[in-house]
Amino acid sequence: MDYKEMYSKKLSTAEEAVKVINSGDWVDYGWAVSTPVALDAALAKRLPELSDVNIRGGILCHVPEIFKIENPVDHFTWNSWHMGGIERKAIAQGFSFYAPIRYSELPRYYRESTTPPRVAMFQVAPMDNHGFFNFGPNASHMQACCEVADIIIVEVNQNMPRCLGGFGEAVHINDVTMIVEGSNPAIDELGGGGAATETDQAVAKYIVNEIPDGACLQLGIGGMPNAVGSLIAQSDLKDLGVHTEMYVDAFVDIAKAGKITGARKGLDKGRQVYAFGAGTKKLYDYVNDNPECMSAPVSYTNDIRSISSHNNFMSINNAVDIDLYGQINAESAGTKQISGAGGQLDFVLGAYLSNGGKSFICMSSTFTTKDGTVQSRIKPTLDNGSIVTDTRANVHYFVTEYGIVNLKGLSSWQKAEAVISVAHPDFRDSLIQEAEKLKIWKRSNKR
Questions:
Q1: pLDDT tens-digit readout, 18-68
Q2: What is the largest CA-CA distance in the chain?
Q3: Strand, coil or helix: what is 44?
Q4: In this structure, is the dihedral angle defined by the CA atoms of residues 118, 123, 126 and 132, taken in order, positive or negative?
Q5: CB–CB of 434/409 below 8 Å?
Q6: Which phi and psi (to 5°) does residue 287 adopt?
Q7: How does residue 166 score in pLDDT terms, banded at 50, 70 and 90?
Q8: Angle separating helix axes 223-234 and 249-256, nearest 10 degrees
Q9: 422, 365 in Cβ contact below 8 A?
Q10: What's the Cα-to-Cα distance from 190 to each of 110, 216, 254, 288, 313, rounded to whole Å?
Q11: What is the DSSP string of 4-41?
Q12: Helix, strand or coil for residue 215?
């Protein structure tokens, strides 16, 4: 088969390609840095003549052109698998909604969905000699999406890293309907939430002290997990492995410091496994054609059976707040959607099933409101409308800048005491009073 000839026959302009989209269609925009650019701009011009188009995507790293059209709510709805700042603003404008799901379930959802995408369009790396377009650092659920889409339009970007895997990391030209050659923009960069603060560093020290040689790591996005990564890179730890949902810059730093060998992993020895990656150019350059890194579907990376196959699995994630019952909210501020469920619970469960494994939920003990008021992230009960991401039965270690506590298996009064012990000192007395009202405080508890 002459793939170059097939490529030529399927080549189209973005403007022609988006003509296949009709009112009422479900359209998939890929994921994270694979979100289309040229196709998005072309669809933005076409959308004013369409209505009720449903578009799926997530982890947006730039504002799509379709978000900028006049009265977007009259023409399309954005359905997000995971929220960020861009999508939060779109929620306020009435055309964006979060789709709650455990991230690990996404491939199966696509394959069994009653509303599969009629059109899937996303950025890919250039076609290789065997006719494959690599998904870049976005294996995630993309293979499943392509299996059920009626029309697949790939937007080739010369700058998209080619991310090696083992399965599910590419789509073949035989399955592609149209090919669009974009303007090759730089791949979107996603920072880690800014430089680590003193609080981040304090939390990180508690966690790094719990990590043994040969541990397998999962890091979430944000200042605290990245601070943990920086400390690991500077530590004496050795023979670490990586099996994570999201590949972040911190892993590159740890690897270049010689700490990662993957020699003690239970699966995929010697390889750093991830479902998707987003960060700076440093990350994209590192994962490009790197056989040490393995891009894989999220149904594999986030499966608790895969996670628990590694001894000493260390899962490190952020949260928004916690209550005295030990319930973790990592998704919302009351009813305001901030993020999404993602794979946090998958890794909390999988890490605990691992021999010697630990999961850490970390946060600063307080936050400051716009008017300068300092408030506790540790609350008597979660605010009305807050989402329980990790139930009180599942949380293992909880960490703030004031300490680290193991909440697993504690009675309600023990749990309240432990959580309050790592609260900001200014709020501990009031939290004890609230715990007494909730009947989860004993006279013998420490004060």
A1: 999 999 999 999 999 999 999 999 999 999 999 999 999 999 999 999 999
A2: 80
A3: helix
A4: negative
A5: no
A6: -80, -15
A7: confident
A8: 0
A9: yes
A10: 26, 24, 18, 17, 26
A11: HHHHHHHEE-HHHHGGG--TT-EEE--SGGG--SHHHH
A12: coil
Alpha helices (H) in 138-197, listed in sequence order? 142-148
C-beta neighbour count of 193 within 10 angstroms: 16
CB 42 within 8 A of CB 64: no
Helix (H, G, I), strand (E, B) or coil at 244: strand
- The token duo for 437 is 């009202």
Residues 6+ apart with CB under 8 A from 253: 229, 230, 233
- Of 304, 326, 322, nearest to 386 by C-alpha is 322
Output the pLDDT for position 221: 78
DSSP label of 394: T
Please give, one letter per residue, the 3-state secondary structure of 327-358.
CEECCEECCEECCCCCCHHHHHHHHHHCCCCE
d(CA 12, CA 327): 51
Q: Whose structure tokens read 């003193």?
A: 198
Beta bridge partners of 321: 329
Q: Give the gyration radius of the chain's Cα atoms.
A: 23
Which pLDDT belongs to residue 84? 85
Q: Which amino acid is at 341?
A: A
Structure tokens at 134: 């690599």
Give residue 35's identity as a one-letter amino acid code. Answer: T
Selected catalytic residue, list 87, 169, 245, 331:
245
Helix (H) or strand (E) segment spanning residue 375: strand 374-376
The encoded tokens of residue 188 equal 């979107």
Residue 5 annotated to the active site: no
Dihedral of the CA atoms 370, 371, 372, 377 (nearest 10)? Answer: -60
